[in-house]
Amino acid sequence: MIRIPKGCKDMLPAEAHIWQAIEDEARTAAELYGFKEIRTPVFEHTELFLRGVGDTTDIVNKEMYTFLDKGGRSITLRPEGTAGVARAFVENGLQGGTLPFKAYYLISAFRYERPQAGRLREFHQFGAELYGAASPSADAEAILLAARFLNGLGLGDDVTLHLNSIGCKQCRARYSEALRDYFRPHIGEMCEDCRARFEKNPLRILDCKNDACRKYTADAPSMLDYLCDDCRAHFETLKELLTAAGVKFVVDPRIVRGLDYYSRTVFEFTTDLIGAQSTVLGGGRYDGLLEQMDAKPTPAVGFAAGIERLILALQALDAPFADRVPDIYIAGMDAQSRRRGLLLAEELRGRGYVVVCDLMERSLKAQFKYADKLYASFVITIGESELEEGAAEVRNMFGSTSERVKFEDIAQYIKNYRRN
To answer: Is residue 240 domain-shared with residue 364, that is, in the same domain?
Structure first.
């Protein structure tokens, strides 16, 4: 038998309501802030990610699913959402429209990495992007949206916001030299990836998860000591705005995020609920991204949340997510009654009720057991006598009461019963 590829996971119907609850909360939160949904292709030209994500990242160097199409063009399955949104923003002329541009997405993305809890090769994200605003207020709004989303899921008390600034190009140039001076005596004892990052982008060393490297990164210089006046003022204003809005945070100078396009603000929401993969949502500002893609420079800020990680966190809390169960089960005793039940089901569905019919030709006793297993509120039984009388037996499965009701009155009967 052909099996699912490694690092992928089926979402089964029994789990769908959890995904839908997260997606509904994402849409609700985003639209409260004036964000509208955007959908971009699942694959793009590879150059988009080489230039957008950055060629010093693990994503580009190790994790992208890249292939040649039939025309010999290099194509990559998207490893994240921001680069595709940036491309769509430019290509569709939205830079010249009314700013700020606000968009959110719910996507699948792909990275070739070792599968583990909360980290799959095909994974899903909720993300939000805001283009055109350079002010700290835009950073604050992105973080407030992220916090409202997590609060709406019931995770507010179980996540911690970590906040940092990695400055502008000028700040980072000075800081990069300070990091090279600090790491130079130790670089020979560090991992191969960090040795490669030492010259290209030493900030990425701070993001290394290798224990041999972390003992050196713990005492590395802090980016906050190298911020220019403008970047420092931006960060201080952001902290003031978040404090005024009642959002608690921890200043964490070790956060750099894993993508090269970030500048100034970076942030992560972490939790202790899911073990090693503790970040459930992360983002920041990326004012240089569009310029990096040869487009007109435009300030931008945003974030992405991993849906699989959110599910793990919610499961750790035993968070209740109500699945919609059938309102009505229609039990038929023979071919004629099942046919009448099918027509009745269509009428009731037209009134907005969730209705399940007998399609397996089970015995009446087995049908009642099945309806009970489905948690159906009512069971409507149709047999030969019911067809002759033009009325069905309607049983309330929770009140254990039963009443004969004419077919044309059933919808109103159930509506009145629920109202009472």
So the answer is: no
Asked if the model's pLDDT at residue 334 lies above 70, the reply is: yes
Cα separation, 181 vs 175, whole angstroms: 10
291 contacts 176 by C-beta, under 8 angstroms: no
Between 55-59, 82-86, 250-254, the lowest mean confidence (pLDDT) is in: 55-59
Residue 42 domain-assigned (yes or no): yes
- Residues 295, 298, 301: CA angle, nearest 5 degrees: 125
Instruction: Compute the distance between CA of residue 257 and CA of residue 284 in angstroms, rounded to an integer.
Output: 8
Q: Which residue range(s) make up the domain with 238?
A: 13-168+228-316
Which DSSP helix (H) or strand (E) runs through 380? strand 378-382
Cβ atoms of residues 165 and 264 within 8 Å: yes
Number of domains composing the chain: 2
Residue with tokens 């002010």: 135
Torsion over CA of 142, 143, 146 and 150, rounded to 10 degrees? -170
Candidates 234, 390, 378; CA nearest to 299 is 234
CATH code at position 295: 3.30.930.10
Is position 161 within any domain?
A: yes
Q: Is 101:131 a contact under the CB 8 Å cutoff?
A: yes
Band of pLDDT at residue 225, cut at 50, 70 and 90: very high
